[in-house]
Amino acid sequence: MSEPGADFLDAVHWDARGLVPVIAQEDATGQVLMLAWMNREALAATVTQGVAVYWSRSRGRLWRKGEVSGHVQTVRELRLDCDGDTVLLRVEQHGGIACHTGRARCFFQRLTDDGWVSDEPVLKTPQSIYTDHDHA
Amino acid sequence: MSEPGADFLDAVHWDARGLVPVIAQEDATGQVLMLAWMNREALAATVTQGVAVYWSRSRGRLWRKGEVSGHVQTVRELRLDCDGDTVLLRVEQHGGIACHTGRARCFFQRLTDDGWVSDEPVLKTPQSIYTDHDHA
Hints:
The first copy, chain A, has 136 residues and is of the alpha+beta class. Chain A has a domain at 6-96: Ubiquitin-like (UB roll). Chain A has helices at 7-10, 40-49, 126-129, and strands at residues 20-26, 32-38, 53-56, 61-64, 73-80, 87-93, 109-112, 115-118. In chain A, strand 5 (73-80) and strand 6 form a beta hairpin.
């Protein structure tokens, strides 16, 4: 994607922390992979670099998704909702693993009569994904 | 769906406001329709009633999606992410309209070289959807 002017950043309704929630959806399958957060700098970097760059709330820094794991998300499309307060990314998920637990996506727990039950397989152990045990 | 015990509410990592972001995805198509928020009461009501009940941050009350518009969301599946801080609903979207603008979904703006551009049609005008001009 080439780059729109910086005005697109002003159209986003950043919350009190300067963040916006971002949904990553796998382009090929339509699977919802994860939800993360971006600040202005992260969204600008995502558009410039063409890969998902989030704001890590736990680490307080930009988080280039896949920087350790290699599980980079190439961005195919960015969308904004009616209120301007949520972003939707259509991505190509490299390695087929979005979750730091080694599963295809973060939403691997389904509500059943017995509560939340994990019903999706671990494709790769976190130990083999992370040399430094950093988060995805 | 029958009802799990109340413990499933404790597995959710509610934010400082007691809320969790909830992604609604259309079950039949995989389209991501919208993002909204729930508190404990809203999530409990969603499970009990089998339809999406959100917490309206703007109105400060429970918001039974479609209560005015009729655009109810029947819940087919509830999922929780790895960190327990995002919920994913698979829903049947009644009326085929999730957005209060009268579009199929809220993510109707796509980022282009000219900024965010609306590229999805208004299926029904808000005036004809809302008798009292309440939000969806």
